[in-house]
Write a structure and sequence with these properties.
The complex is a heterodimer of chains A (313) and B (449). Chain A has 313 residues and is mainly alpha-helical. Chain A contains 13 helices and two strands; from the N terminus they run H-H-H-H-E-E-H-H-H-H-H-H-H-H-H. In chain A, helix 1 packs antiparallel against helix 8 and helix 1 packs across helix 9. Chain A starts with a helix and ends in a 10-residue tail after the last helix. Chain B is mostly helical and 449 residues long. In chain B, helix 3 crosses helix 9. Chain B has two domains: 313 residues, Orthogonal Bundle (ABC transporter involved in vitamin B12 uptake, BtuC); 95 residues. The chains are: A mainly alpha (313), B mainly alpha (449).
């Protein structure tokens, strides 16, 4: 019970972190049709910039300034790079962002070295939020979850309740028509790209202090974030939230499950055969936790081609 | 390099009107026809290569051949059929493991002696391709890319846990057994074995593009819907193309396993998948030999430059992004573009333009290399460790000179080089454009909209 409660909590927080990164990605995809490989790099840059700024400005200012810088960089990427190759089609744009993410990772290695940096939660935030089954639950985790929830609320209200949101949503669903009605769609694209990058940067600035900040963090998280966006349905914010929580919970819960497929066969009296066959059948679920997001994605795509809540194919 | 390069892009995911592309296809066929004699000449050259190369370089040439085959197999999907796959390391890796297990199990004797063993790479790559392809080819566009990526990551995450098959951290190793009077002990014999396999496979892949199925694959790229309306079973066609691609990727993996006499689950890493994408698009996916060109150049680039600098991956990334932005048809698109211009421009003007472009390229290259190398040295861990507070930063050595990180002149030189390079590049771009405008036919139908 204790294990279950803590796993669910940790899984929720991890899922909320995934949402912070995937929110921008899914909006950018919905709007431009580009699966943006640089997005996870923005997450990494947010962490590294906050780490660099922290000694100069203190923690709080660092996690405000670093997302702004990352957002500015996102604007540059859209304006200088993506817009240039737009006429060559989506595949070309995807490849360009892929190349850019490669460059960003190498530049980070150039400046900070190919090893984790010492970016950690500041002392004054290292206290426990509450006690659960006798163990302390760190306040910082709760803070990450709250930031993500606040982000979801703000984005949702912005998109559904404001005039800007209406323009953005129309640019997502029918960019051509929105432009014909006199809206500056390229500007909207640039803005959403910048805001998405800034949100990823914020996620990095906050989560980098709790998890590790290293040059591989973009690659590691990036693939999972792609899975989240595809599972949730490309372009759908609530879908991204649902998929993030789902994947966060499954990854977190699976780590502690010692069962294997052989146990399932055991129910039908075929345990001995399964254990003899070995291979996949005797692998413990816990060691499979890294593969679960991908298996989940394949399953969702097989059952519901446009993801959990997607409308675009 | 010209930003308004009037070449047609290869544009797999965009169902643009096929009519607008006719010149591109004609040109591609043109280039392919020229490629056959070039291929024979290249094969002859490669066969003579060992006479002049040291064993170390011979190993690099071996790696190059494997990368060439891998990129060409990848291009059956990405370039010819317009399906951008992001997890081709899976088929390469499975081919490598199948071959290494076959080497251990058969001992290179019986019906399948050592030189024939990469055929297991073909079979394993093809078999995995049937399973993965059946699933992934049901979708197109971004979903296809993401499914291939997810499948490859699934295998990558699973492989370390299946110790019986993939050997865990240590991997699986084997020995090349003697056969046909050869002992396969020297890198020379391995090189010829690889060369024979790669030439045969490239010939088969080239032949494949000439078959009706190969032509239909081009139709898939241009407009899958139209193909469907014409009554073709598009899913079966996609699957077939996928299997061909993955089977030959498996051969490349098998050859790698033969050369290294070992295989490790690191082969499934996303790095290998992304390398083949970079190589193929740097070379240009529109032409059959484009990816091969890219793979050959980038392997050699890696071999030579990785000895010189730690930042060679950065240079590779910069090169890729530049090509994506300014040369959408890749390096292999340079030749037809040059030909189109030379048909309509006086030679002297063309030479001046080329000289200006080369000057711009050289300036930008010098500026980039200088800034990257200086930064790399200044931010290196061992350099940072010897800094003392309050004292000036000591000089770093590069190109036989000492550079003071504190002095403005150190940074002004690369900046000046970059600025001059961009100015020259801008001027060159403008003149190329004027040249193109003066002779609208030069660019096969004018600039892309």
């Amino acid at each position: 019970m204790e294990y279950l409660a803590i796993s669910v909590l940790n899984g929720l927080i991890y899922g909320l972190l995934l949402f912070m990164v995937s929110a921008g990605l899914t909006l950018i995809f919905g709007m431009m049709g580009v699966l943006n490989f640089t997005h996870a790099s923005f997450y990494m840059l947010g962490a590294y910039l906050a780490y660099t700024l922290q000694p100069l400005t203190g923690f709080w200012l660092a996690i405000v300034v670093s997302p702004l810088l990352v957002g500015f960089l996102g604007v540059l990427v859209e304006r200088v790079f993506l817009r240039r190759v737009h006429r060559y089609g989506h595949a070309h744009e995807l490849l360009l962002t892929f190349g850019l993410s490669f460059i960003i990772a190498e530049v980070v290695k150039l400046f900070y070295g190919n090893f984790p940096v010492d970016y950690r939660v500041p002392e004054q935030l290292g206290f426990a939020a509450f006690h659960i089954f006798g163990t302390q639950y760190p306040f910082y985790r709760v803070l990450m979850g709250l930031v993500s929830l606040a982000m979801f609320g703000a984005l949702y209200l912005l998109l559904t309740r404001t005039r800007v949101g209406i323009v953005v949503r129309s640019a997502i669903y029918r960019p051509g028509m929105a432009q014909a009605l006199g809206h500056n769609v390229p500007l909207v694209f640039m803005g959403v790209f910048g805001v998405g990058a800034a949100l990823a940067g914020l996620a990095g600035a906050i989560a980098g202090a709790f998890y590790t900040t290293n040059p591989n963090m973009a690659l590691e998280l990036g693939v999972v974030v792609f899975v989240v966006v595809v599972v949730g349905g490309l372009g759908s914010l609530p879908g991204a939230m649902a998929a993030s929580i789902l994947i966060g919970l499954t990854s977190s819960l699976a780590v502690g499950v010692d069962a294997s497929l052989a146990d399932l066969f055991g129910l039908f009296g075929a345990r001995a055969w399964a254990e003899e066959a070995g291979g996949l059948l005797t692998l413990k679920i816990s060691s499979l936790s890294a593969t679960l997001p991908f298996a989940l994605m394949l399953l969702v795509l097989a059952l519901s081609p446009s993801g959990l809540m997607g409308e675009k194919e | 390099m010209n930003p308004t390069n009037p070449m047609d892009p290869t544009n797999p995911m965009d169902p643009a009107p096929a009519l607008a592309r006719v010149p591109a296809r004609v040109r591609a066929a043109d280039a392919d026809r020229a490629a056959v004699p070039a291929m024979l000449a290249g094969a002859a050259l490669l066969a003579l290569l060992p006479a002049v190369l040291s064993p170390g370089l011979l190993n690099a040439a071996n790696q190059m051949l494997i990368a060439v085959l891998f990129a060409s197999a990848f291009n059956v999907l990405a370039g010819q059929s317009g399906m951008l796959a992001f997890g081709h390391a899976a088929y390469f890796g499975i081919g490598a493991f199948a071959t290494i297990h076959a080497m251990n199990a058969l001992g290179g004797e019986g019906l399948l002696p050592t030189p024939l063993l990469p055929v297991f790479g073909l079979l394993a790559g093809g078999a995995l391709g049937v399973a993965a392809g059946w699933f992934s080819t049901q979708r197109t566009g971004v979903y296809f890319s993401m499914i291939t990526l997810a499948l490859a990551e699934l295998i990558h995450a699973l492989a370390p846990h299946l110790k019986e098959v993939f050997g865990g951290e240590a991997g699986v190793s084997s020995m090349r057994m003697p056969a046909w009077g050869l002992d396969f002990g020297s890198s020379l014999q391995v090189y010829y074995l690889t060369l024979a396999w790669v030439s045969a496979c490239l010939a088969l892949l080239f032949f494949f593009t000439r078959t009706p199925v190969g032509r239909l694959a081009l139709g898939l790229r241009e407009n899958g819907h139209r193909l469907k309306f014409l009554g073709y079973n598009v899913h079966a066609l996609r699957l077939l193309v996928f299997v061909v691609s993955s089977a030959f990727a498996g051969v490349a993996g098998g050859l790698q396993a033969m050369a290294n006499e070992s295989a490790n689950y690191v082969l499934f890493d996303v790095r290998l998948s992304s390398e083949v994408v970079l190589n193929a698009y740097i070379g240009g996916v529109g032409v059959f030999f484009g990816p091969a060109l890219g793979a050959a150049l980038m392997t050699l680039f890696g071999y030579f430059v990785s000895d010189l600098t730690r930042s060679w991956l950065l240079y590779q990334g910069i090169l890729f992004v530049l090509i994506m932005m300014y040369l959408p048809t890749g390096l292999s698109g340079l030749l037809p573009w040059w030909r189109a211009h030379s048909r309509h421009q006086p030679a002297g003007r063309l030479a001046r333009l080329a000289a200006l472009s080369l000057l711009a390229g050289a300036l930008l290259l010098a500026g980039t290399v200088l800034s990257v190398e200086l930064l790399q040295r200044v931010f290196a861990q061992d350099y940072q460790a010897q800094l003392a507070a309050g004292q000036a930063w000591p000089a770093v050595a590069f190109l036989g000179r000492d550079w003071l990180p504190g002095a403005p002149s150190t940074w002004l030189l690369p900046l000046a080089l970059l600025a001059a390079g961009s100015l020259a590049a801008r001027a060159a771009a403008r003149r190329w454009q004027e040249a193109g405008d003066a002779a609208p036919a030069a660019g096969d139908g004018g600039p892309t909209p």
